[in-house]
Amino acid sequence: MKRFAELFAALDTTTSTAARTKALAEYFRTAPEADRVWTVALLSGRRPKRVVNATELRNWAAEAAGLPLWLFEESYNVAGDLAETIALLLPPATTDADPTLDQALRQLIQLAGQPEPIRKQATLAAWAQLQGDARLLYTKLITGGFRMGVAQGLMTRALAQATGVEETTLAHRLMGDWKPETTGFHALIEGDGQQGARPYPFALASPLEAEPETLGPVTDWLAEWKWDGIRGQIIARPGAFAVWSRGEDLITDRFPEFAALADFLPPGTVIDGEILAWDGVAPLPFAALQTRITRKTVSKAQMAKAPAHILAYDLLEDAGEDIRQQPLAHRRARLATILAQIPPSLPLSLSPQITAQDWPELTAERAKARDKQAEGLMLKRLSSPYHQGRKRGDWWKWKLDPYAVDAVMLYAQAGHGRRANLYTDYTFAVRDGNDLVPFTKAYSGLTDAEFNQITAWVNRNTLERFGPVRRVKPELVFEIGFEGIQASPRHKSGLALRFPRMLRWRQDKALDQIDTLESLRALLAGTKP
Q1: Which end of the chain has fewer CB atoms within 10 angstroms, the N or the C?
Q2: Among the CATH numbers 3.40.50.300, 3.30.470.10, 2.30.33.40, 3.30.470.30, which is that of 203-398?
Q3: Model pLDDT for residues 204-251, shown as the tens digit of each residue
Q4: Which Gene3D superfamilies match (predicted)?
Q5: How many CB atoms lie within 10 A of CB 220?
Q6: Could you give the angle at the alpha carbon of 146 between the alpha carbons of 63 and 186, nearest 5°?
């Protein structure tokens, strides 16, 4: 763990991409092979499942530190991070043991499903032999909240430098459903020669911030709707059929409607597309699809209420040939040929292309996006390859401006990590007659200077305290942006927002100028108040 902690410290103390890449590459060359595999897994989102809840950790840590629970809780409120609080308050390690990352994580995995006394004993023993950053990192792994702030692309680049394997080849080999506890380093890096159901790294788009005219002739671009669903890949290879999400979750069983595609797609076909809830003609709102996202098994009633469909964007593999480096226009034509040969009753069709003579005409089409249950337009250069990850210049997402309402802050809570001493997480309300009704929370969108200014205001204007939460005077007004709105019986307002964030602090507005619950309901109904 000490070696892994040294890597963490090296990465945490610099923002230089070159320095981070160098530190990772050196680690991948010299660390124990099993530890390298676990590090790749952690940096690509394959964290072990949580085996101890936060309440248990707080109670055990307070006991081990000889502190009353209330004092531990107050320390946690100040530090803002549970693992950091535990690492600072526990007494020094009692041994000089230094388990490897592999040993620590295998022991952690074995605790799954064990009674509390066994999990407590093992956790206390681990804390007693670790110190400093090693103890901090182990505790973060227990909580399931481990982050190293390293993009997967940077990790892949460092791994390529350490192994001599080409970066794009590595990126493909690291995809899929491999498990660090059963995968050797050389097997992972060299691959097994069989692609099986392994997906490709997804190509991502960047937000279009300039005027579209700066992109050149509109005829150089493919325009299609930016659908609001789940990005996925359909894998149909000899002996393998799978559906993967962009987050590398195998979701085949969650969408049994797609099983029939295995009988009709040619062997060696990989398609990139968007999974949507579908009414037979057009997409349903994202809320309909959301009822199925977290379910591993889906009932017939759920399938009937929100049937799934894939709108295909791109063809990545055709007859077993990787065609990602071919121009998009070529890939799209081959995709259209394949889809024309499958029965129209199957839940797979081509995402429609939007044609326009010039940018003003395409801008007018973009304005119709919400009527199509879309978020805006995607613009893809017809000559572009299918990139790995996000590469600016060839793929752009040209989204509509978000919905926006003015609301007042009712509650404030401190953030975590470097924001642990700032109030950054706010609860907002709109007017309902003479009442203020909470309707959403948000924690992003402001500058550090604004968060500092608001924190000072919260300290002066707190009315009540509920643990880390402060109820404040309803005076500060903010413009809240969001992508969608839906009915929700779980919320007091009866509404839930999709991707809420603060667009700006409206210091020019007062409480009596905020929006109303009626205006939000009208927005939900699709009419203007």
Answers
A1: C
A2: 3.30.470.30
A3: 999 998 999 999 999 999 999 999 899 999 999 998 999 999 888 888
A4: DNA ligase, ATP-dependent, N-terminal domain (1.10.3260.10), DNA ligase/mRNA capping enzyme (3.30.470.30), Nucleic acid-binding proteins (2.40.50.140)
A5: 12
A6: 125
